[in-house]
Amino acid sequence: MPRIRSQPEDFIVDEIPRTPPAGEGQHTYLLIEKRLRTTDEVLQELAAVTEVPRRELGCAGRKDKYALTRQWFSVPNLEPKKASALSLTTGRVVAVDRHPHKLRTGELLGNRFRLVVRGVSQAEARRAQEALDMVIEKGLPNRFGRQRFGRDGKNVEKGVAILRADRLRIDRRTAWLLVSAVQSAVFNEVLARRPFPLDQVILGDVALDHRTGDLFLVDDLEAAGPRAARFEISATGPIFGTKMKRPEGAVKTLEGAAMRSFGLPDVSEMSPPAGIRLYGSRRPLRVRLTEIECHPLGHEDMLLEFVLPAGSYATTLIEELFPGGYDEGPPPRR
Predict the structure, then answer these.
(1) Are 156 and 278 in a shared domain?
(2) Percentage of residues in the chain having pLDDT higher than 70
(3) Domain presence at residue 268
(4) For 105, left (φ over 0), alpha (ψ -120 to 50), or beta?
(5) 272 with 148, same domain?
(6) Within a domain: residue 2?
(7) Model confidence over 212-238: pLDDT tens digits?
(8) Which residues contact 129 (CB under 8 A, 6 or more apart)?
(9) Domain CATH number, residue 268
(10) For residues 118 and 301, is the Cβ–Cβ distance under 8 A?
(11) Is the domain of 176 the same as that of 263?
């Protein structure tokens, strides 16, 4: 069976910043390479060695632990020379620069991936290439990866319990992570239930214009249909919340059914505990792969290189290329 992450170097991730460091300012940006470490572990060590409170440090997002990743962090009032000289157990400082403000969550364009899939038979490689061609043409389903739902897969269950509770019984940050897992699961359910190809929109869809980032209600299929086929626009799914733009018609019915499948009412009928604010947003049902390379490595290995926008999962592509399943992590010792 195909296997990913046989070793950390088989799963390389490079962060693509939304705005490169400006070269001046009171915050020092550090590009740190880590291996077999979480982003939180790097942040904790940075806080300790720089004697800066953890809350004042910044990063654009969290990266996989069982991987080789390079991402930016920000530290206020740290001299670049001192930053370059830092000796970390959780990673290696690759580059340093200054910027006027703290690096905040979500401030990245995307991630560049270099993945090696091992144990791929010739038949699997052929089917994977056919599936990749389809993904390139139609788009990659933008579902959330399994890691979003916790090691035991119970984050959704815990998040639903929080939404039903009269008050928070855990810290706010943990509670919000669990609630966001519920939002992600509802989105995935909508995507799974949708009976239309990814390159189609229907009346009542809330569509995203990929060029402008604008959302609009689809009320003219003659105009919107060809645009979706050209990948100019895409249908979106719910990250449920009070400020989320609502669909109409059959799409509204489908999204309501997905909510009820988790025992949740319409968001207008929810009363989450104090400290949990459900603003909501829309997420495109598909994303475009760019800078794609796919070729064999040796007899039974495959190299995949590609770029995905922020918030999309490389493992989703692996699921599409190998629908029969795949293993993850080092192979068992014999």
Answers:
(1) yes
(2) 100
(3) yes
(4) beta
(5) yes
(6) no
(7) 999 999 999 999 999 999 999 999 999
(8) 294
(9) 3.30.2340.10
(10) yes
(11) yes
How far apart are the C-alpha atoms of 69 and 14, rounded to whole Å? Answer: 6
What is the total count of domains within the chain? 3
Active site annotation includes 64? yes
Pick from 203, 184, 168: nearest CA to 281:
184
| Strand extents, DSSP E, 212-326 | 215-217, 233-239, 281-284, 286-287, 290-297, 301-309
Count, residues in the chain: 334
Is the whole model's pTM more than 0.70, yes or no?
yes
CATH of the domain at 87: 3.30.2350.20
Q: What residues pair up with 3 in beta bridges, in sequence order?
A: 118, 327
The string of pLDDT tens digits covering residues 74-132 is 999 999 999 999 999 999 999 999 999 999 999 999 999 999 999 999 999 999 999 99
Q: What whole-number distance in Å separates Cα of residue 61 and Cα of residue 313?
A: 13
Q: Are residues 294 and 280 in the same domain?
A: no
Give me the domain span that covers residue 297.
Answer: 110-138+288-328
Tell whether 9 is covered by a domain: no
CB 196 within 8 A of CB 202: yes
From CA 144, how far away is CA 273, in angstroms rounded? 25
pLDDT of 331 higher than 90: no
Within a domain: 3:
no
238 and 260 assigned to the same domain: yes
Query: What DSSP string runs through 13-40?
Result: EEEEESS---S-SSEEEEEEEEES--HH
CATH number for the domain including 305? Answer: 3.30.70.1130
Q: How far is CA 186 from CA 135, 189, 284, in A?
A: 23, 5, 14
| Residue 57, both tokens | 């440090």
Amino acid making up residue 208: L
Which of 10, 14, 40, 64 is catalytic? The answer is 64
Q: CB within 8 A of 70, min separation 6: which ones?
A: 13, 14, 15, 31, 32, 33, 34, 94
Three-state secondary structure of 35-51 = ECCCHHHHHHHHHHHHC
